[in-house]
Amino acid sequence: MPGTTGARMTVNGTETPISPCAPHTTALDFLRERGLTGTKEGCAEGECGACSVMVARPGVHKPTDWVAVNACLVPAAALDGQEIVTAEGLATAGEPGTASALHPVQEEMAVRGGSQCGYCTPGFVCSMAAEYYRPGRCEHSATATGTAPSADAEHGPNGFDLHALSGNLCRCTGYRPIRDAAFSVGAPTDDDPLARRRELPPPAPVTTEYARDGRVFLRKSTLAETLRVLRERPDAVVVAGSTDWGVEVNIRARRAHCVIAIDRLPELRDLRVESDHIEIGAALTLTEIERRLDGDVPLLAELFPQFASRLIRNSATLGGNLGTGSPIGDSAPVLLALDASLVLTDADGERVVPLADYFTGYRQSVRRPGELIRAVRVPLPLSPVTAFHKIAKRRFDDISSVAVAFALDIEDGLVRTARIGLGGVAATPIRSLATEAALEGKPWSARTAEAAARVLRGEGTPMSDHRASALYRSAMLGQSLLKLHAQTTEAVSS
To answer: Does the predicted model carry a pTM greater than 0.85?
Structure first.
């Protein structure tokens, strides 16, 4: 990574210094202070998408992808050396005030009435534009495939995945015309500069040491350098996507004397499939993992659409979700069911810890000061019967009341092995050991499922809060196993 003499980012094609903002200043505030007021604050915690902007990131299927992120969560200093595009930067060259000055997604939003009060519109436009530029989108369209438009309400005939807008909130209930606009955009033209940008390498990571008023934001070029700094500064806050820390900064006014970014460290961004395991780098975003695995781990594929929103998944990482130690983090139950292990590393070396042994208490773990999660290892072969059940008040972009993940090996009608991960029913994510024992060696029958469901209802120590009562949580645990049995029975009979 080349060093920088002064932190700066490229905004809508113009290089802009980050100074004099504070190290904790969000990209949202940075942009608004420079007159780019299309980027708006609605919630300050990544739930509404009014602050959405596009960032040029390493691509999965092309050298560069345009990725939509929540500008309210990411520190401006984290974008040192990077390229971003706001709603103002989407418009193409044209006569001001005419339709030719609008980007295709902006024009579709305008002509189809997708803009109501207008507050949310720039965020919708940026999220929509990121999906507009997604490589391969048009290959799945009705025109490209020669088939009739899909009956799936969440995927358009133009290949547009409506999950791209799952993190954008319209308080005027204007979703139908917004959906119409999304399903009407065509393919980028050959002379579209943002489409052409995808064919070039992404911005290279830069070494950053941005200090002001006694606080510093650091990005080192290697894992070894980062671990040395962590040994010297065990009080430092480590961030990747900043989807958790950004909320602490905005809502709870948390300030750190030292923040260390690890999201671009190459040692944390590998994904390898070995003969006996899959190793997933802790700093890969959930979107990158989803697209690189492409369904090869069905349980993870079921998790991803239910994990927050696309805007969050474009920044959030498995390392961050597990590192916070939250009992309601959605990835932990799934990885517990997959019998995953964590590769922990510090300046002295590495160790491998089963995820089932990682959590020790509420937001506590065996991870030592100065130690990072380098990777997640999922053993192979995978269990053939899997499911992830998330019980929440909303279908998408919500926190779980209960999360249950199943991974079963069923052979000749018998449950050979069972792994069940639970979230939201104890101070930590837990394995459902008693229920696993009640299933293993038994026939996969309604009687077995009902007996095991009674055991599952008694697992954990669920509490009552504003999301759900303890009684409801226990009931949903048992119901989830009955649902799994009904689903697998239907699959076999069909």
So the answer is: yes
